[in-house]
Amino acid sequence: MNNLHGDHGAVVFVLYLFQIWGMDKGFQGFRAGQDLAAHRLDDRQRRGRAAASNRAGRFERQERVAESDGWDLEEALPVLRTEVRHERLRRVITYNRAPDLPFDRSINPYRGCEHGCIYCFARPTHAWLGLSAGLDFETRLVARPGAAAGLERELAAPGYRVAPIALGTNTDPYQPLEQREGVTRALLLVLLRSRHPVAIVTKGRLILRDLDLLQEMAELGLVRVGISLTTLDPALSRRMEPRAPAPAKRLQVIRALAEAGIPVRVMTSPIIPGLTDHEVEALLQAAADAGAQAASWVMLRLPLEVAPLFRDWLAEHYPDRAGRVMRRVREMHGGKDYEAKWGLRMRGSGAYAEMIAQRFATCARRLGLDRPQPGLRCDLFRAPEVAARQLPLF
Q: pTM of the full predicted structure?
């Protein structure tokens, strides 16, 4: 197992022999909507993955494409396997001042996500590692095994002021990698001992492994959970989020959490125009039947590298709907694939966005899902006792 040091340990993984195709391409190709066909991998290599290509990130000065060696031989292509690196963190808690987020601090136990959701807005963060937002994001993962110890130190700092921590806002804390690494459970243990409030976002079934911790935290008013449910169509889910639990499994998670007394909301996010928007009411009904107590939604977001990856995915799997989907997206974002302005980036604007908001609000109200989740308690917090580190005399 290799380690990454520092905040952005830049590691470039090269699996195949590549030919340097051009310099100073940067992100211009993405902005111009340049075709990703030259970067597409063979279907046999990317089995169980959503992205079709692995184009270099926006900070890279070089493009790499596979080239034939001229030998017309039938050769078996290597299947992409998930690789994991470890990262040593300087800081565990990330703070933000975004006016359209309901939290000011978060923790992400992992970089990259094996669920591989094609629409994931976090894909561009892989560029900070010198990696691609495409297949690298799904297969070149980074775990943070020292996060729990780091969190203890930060919570014990004299100036720390308690407020709910959002867990898994960028990548899923209960993706398959958690089964082996256990970073999320270790973090929950620290938060429970410290009586620190936490809000968890996931679509992973592995959260049920931690019911013992979550139940104890729920009894103290320290936890609530959001489960992402994008569609009830298992075929669409398998193409769009290939290594995430099927919709029926996520509904089972909602039911199990609710029966255990853990506050749970359904997150019908993202709503994709022309692809999943007709399911809004059905998603809310299924979640309410499973025991969800509240609901929220976010419209499809396509920042930076996500836009061309998503367009490429549409062209491959739903060519008959691709034009209509993207027209709706641009209609909500001022003619662009994405508008990053506060207050607009999550839901868009215009008649279509307003119609979705009204449908969601009407159905949520009818089902009793328009209630806010209970507030999390901050008054129980007790700073962890961290043993002082003694410096060597010589």
A: 0.88
